[in-house]
Amino acid sequence: MHQEMPRLKRRRNAATARPALRVRSALAGDLAQVIAIDARATGLPKPEYWAGILRRYGRGGARRRFLVGEAGARIVGFIVGEVRDWEFGSPPCGWVFAIGVRPDARLGGIGTHLLDALREGFRRQGVKQLRTLLARDNALILSFFRSQGMMAGRFIPLEMDID
After folding, report:
1. How far is CA 110 from CA 23, 70, 161, in A?
2. Of 65, 64, 84, 80, which is closest to residue 127 (Cα–Cα)?
3. Is 130 helix (H, G, I), strand (E, B) or coil?
4. Interval 4-23: pLDDT, tens
């Protein structure tokens, strides 16, 4: 089901006017651009992974969301999230699994618009908390989420090698 989000107006500078950003559910035709944005950030193209994400999250269901930010005919960012509940004793909570913005479009509020759209969808479901996990050394994503008001939570991630 294609669910369109409202167009979000962006400030326009006369010298660098950009098309308005529209946040909407991802479609199959968006995948090549999403894969390119992700590969630029991670250094690893993952077409099969993203095709699976679209199958699981792209239908605009109540609990799962795969949104893109579109400026003109160009995808400039994406976000993927899901509502999970009662894992580790936690009441329903929104999770951000992935977010990415084209490097040449950063600092334009796109990540904020994408996160706001995801958060609003979760809020409509009665979710009161948003979480994510990220690599400790990913300064770019860490600074973005901190700028959005996120901070260390009450859960501590633990891990071990299984080899």
Report:
1. 9, 9, 36
2. 84
3. strand
4. 444 444 444 433 556 799 99
- Helix or strand run (H / E) with residue 75: strand 74-84
User: Which whole-number Å values give the CA distances from 94 to 26, 48, 55, in the listed order?
Assistant: 18, 25, 19
Only one residue has tokens 């329903």, namely: 92
Between helices 31-42 and 47-57, what is the axis angle to 10°? 130
Q: 140-156 b/e with 16+ CB inside 10 Å = b?
A: ebeebbeeeebeeeeee
What is the 8-class DSSP label of residue 68? Answer: E
Assigned token pair, 40 = 């630029």
Which superfamily does 26-147 belong to?
A: Gcn5-related N-acetyltransferase (GNAT) (3.40.630.30)
C-alpha distance from residue 59 to each of 56, 68, 70, 117, 158 (Å): 7, 13, 17, 16, 32
Instruction: For 77, list phi and psi in degrees, rounded to 5.
Output: -170, 170
Kindly report, residue by residue over 33-50, the tens digit of the pLDDT: 999 999 998 899 999 999
- List the end-to-end C-alpha distance of the chain, in Å, as a whole number: 42
Give me the residue spans of the domains in the chain. 26-147
